[in-house]
Write a structure and sequence with these properties.
about 290 residues, alpha+beta
Length: about 290
Amino acid sequence: MAKEIIKKGNSLFEQIKQVDENGNEFWYARQLAKVLEYADFSRNFIGVINKSKAACTNSGQDVSEHLVEADEVLEAGQGAKHSYPSFKLSRYFCYLIVQNADPSKEVVALGQTYFAVQTRLQEIQSLDAYQKLNNEEEKRLFLRNEMAKHNTQLAAAAKDAGVIEPLDYAIFQNHGYKGLYGGLDAKGIHQKKGLKKSQQILDHMGSTELAANLFRATQTEEKLKREQIKGKQKANQTHFEVGKKVRKTIQELGGTMPENLDSPESIKKLEKKAEQAKLKEPKKNK
């Protein structure tokens, strides 16, 4: 079932998403269990839900805000429908479920990427600072600053994994780009987008492309730490695989591939504009 849906180019997790009368999205637990290839809901999947409840509590979240008891109608043989006790799950709780599900299942790996990317997007969009942004320029500045912060954290995680020398880190970064950009390294991205060698790729990204790269950086950092990956080759492969999975998620959601997105003017010009605007603001009397 999972592979059939994946081949259609539309995320299976998007296809089973529900929306209630108030416009809130949710997933039914039994339907999610079926997609994640758990044949016995009561015997196997309830254990995953219980682990996810504990993870939710440990992260400081209220479980009742992410998991609600509900009846779920499923089709039985010959089109007959029966109601079974189930749960309505938030996107965040689905993310916890795929983190606690059987990692050997291919569909679970897909779910981890999908819900990690979507959950991160929601986190960004829910930030007070992001909510106050009025236009694309402000979103670019915000995400570029986030990217700079997380690139520093990614560099630290890569160093712990054994990526120490500057040349090794450049190779490590190229592996991430290759995964996300369909095989293009930094040089290839420059050529594809018509950028000069002196121009920084990140400085010429729109908010959509910056967000994709932010997902790549944050998820690679977390994976390096979570799995305690050691060795340059393993770190490089991890970065490549994460980039590739983020690319796959963009494809499943019907998005434009990052190498085909437009390259706006340098963000450094926007930074100068912002600084000039601040200088022109009238000073408040103390």
